[in-house]
């Protein structure tokens, strides 16, 4: 869940360092054996991430001030890539939904001559 540039730096460091790879392997092994830290569970289950409905309300501007501030902190300061991707997806959906009536009208107008009257 690191920002992309930090994750790339970490990958490069792991490629160069055998001790770092060994340490990471040990951490993965501990996780797979059921030794969990609270922070790891919190991150894996994304307990701090707002629900998709809340993100949609954020885009619509209908959230209260505290919720809006939290989502801005979570996506911009913390840099949660999952929530940022959800926001992007919701924004694209909203944009395509706004264009749907225009698209339907163009389709109807282009096919109006093929429709028979009185049927």
List the helices and strands and how they pair.
Blueprint: H1 4-16, H2 18-32, H3 38-44, H4 52-60, H5 65-77, H6 81-111
Description:
This protein has helices spanning 4-16, 18-32, 38-44, 52-60, 65-77, 81-111. By secondary structure, the chain is an all-alpha fold. The protein folds into two domains: 1-47, no CATH class; 48-102. Helix 1 (4-16) packs across helix 2 (18-32) and helix 4 (52-60) crosses helix 6. The model has no long low-confidence stretch (mean pLDDT 84). Helices cover 74% and strands 0% of the residues.
Please supply descriptive tags for the structure shown above.
elongated; 2 domains; mainly alpha
- Uncertain regions spanning at least 5 consecutive residues: none
How many domains make up the coordinates? 2
From the helix content, strand content and strand pairing, which structural class follows? mainly alpha
Number of distinct helices: 6
Give the end-to-end Cα distance, rounded to a whole number of Å: 58 Å
For the sheet with most strands, the description reads:
none
| Helix percentage | over 70%
Which band does the percent of strand residues land in? under 5%
> What is the CA-atom radius of gyration, in angstroms?
23 Å
């Amino acid at each position: 869940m690191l920002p992309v540039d930090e994750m790339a730096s970490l990958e490069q460091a792991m490629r160069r360092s055998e001790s770092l790879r060994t340490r990471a392997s040990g951490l993965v092994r501990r996780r797979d054996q059921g030794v969990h830290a609270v922070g790891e569970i919190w991150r894996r289950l994304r307990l701090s991430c707002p629900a998709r409905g809340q993100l949609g309300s954020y885009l619509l501007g209908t959230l209260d001030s505290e919720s809006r501030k939290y989502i801005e902190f979570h996506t911009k300061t913390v840099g949660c890539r999952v929530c940022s991707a959800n926001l992007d997806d919701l924004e694209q959906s909203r944009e395509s939904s706004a264009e749907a009536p225009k698209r339907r009208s163009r389709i109807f107008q282009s096919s109006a001559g093929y429709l028979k009257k009185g049927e």
